[in-house]
Amino acid sequence: MRNLKLIAMLLLFAGLIVSCSNNQDAQESEKLYAGNHKVEVKEVIQATAYTYLLVTEKGEEYWMAISKMEVGEGAVLYYRDRMEMKNFPSKELDKTFDKIYFIQEVSDNPILPPGQTFMGKTEPEKPSIEKIEVNIDLPDGVTSIDDLFTNKESFDNKSVTVMGKVTKVNASIMERNWIHIQDGTGGDTNYDLTITTDDLPQVGEIVTYTGVVGLKKDFGSGYYYELLLEQGERVNNEI
Length: 239
Prior knowledge:
The protein is an alpha+beta fold. It folds into two domains: 35-122, CATH 2.40.50; 145-234, CATH 2.40.50.140. It is built from three helices and 13 strands. The strands form three sheets. Strands 4-1-2-3-6-5 form a six-stranded mixed β-sheet, with no helix packed on it. Strands 9-10-11-13-12 form a five-stranded mixed beta barrel. The chain has a two-stranded antiparallel sheet with strand order 7-8.
């Protein structure tokens, strides 16, 4: 009988420890994920560069735009950062949104803050674009992406010409288009260059731009760039 009582007490004590641990994990999880927006998709409009979503969040209904992806009505998505645009005109849709949020990253699951780890999950500092295989012979007068990032301080506020393959296009954000290119150079992280321009190329095109190098550009809402080519003007590829 004494042994049975001892076993019962040990089981009760173990249960209390597990309960406390679970409560602590739940509190930590709630704190880390507190910055997430949870939305349910009500309507989907697919365009060339964007997927426009009419969503609801805690009873509020609004439009948001994400990079083009397949999303179904009724889907539940999570995001952290957003940039609000008012009276945003979409020429492609022939529609003006009174208010719309541009979202840089969405997920089927809650997103951790940059650099945070919880229960084995880690969120990178910034979602990166996948490196693709690009074989381009860069002509004289063209600066490689690897050279730009390796010697970025020496290029600050200077005009350079770059050439590469378009990997992503975000159109009409803050009255400019945001073009991503790769030229086959660069290391594990610095292989993709973002260019702001009035030009609107297609993904997969080989393009050449001349622009001004800017460092540590922070536009808010998660739009931070260690290096950015601004005021990009497209030039003939055979320079």
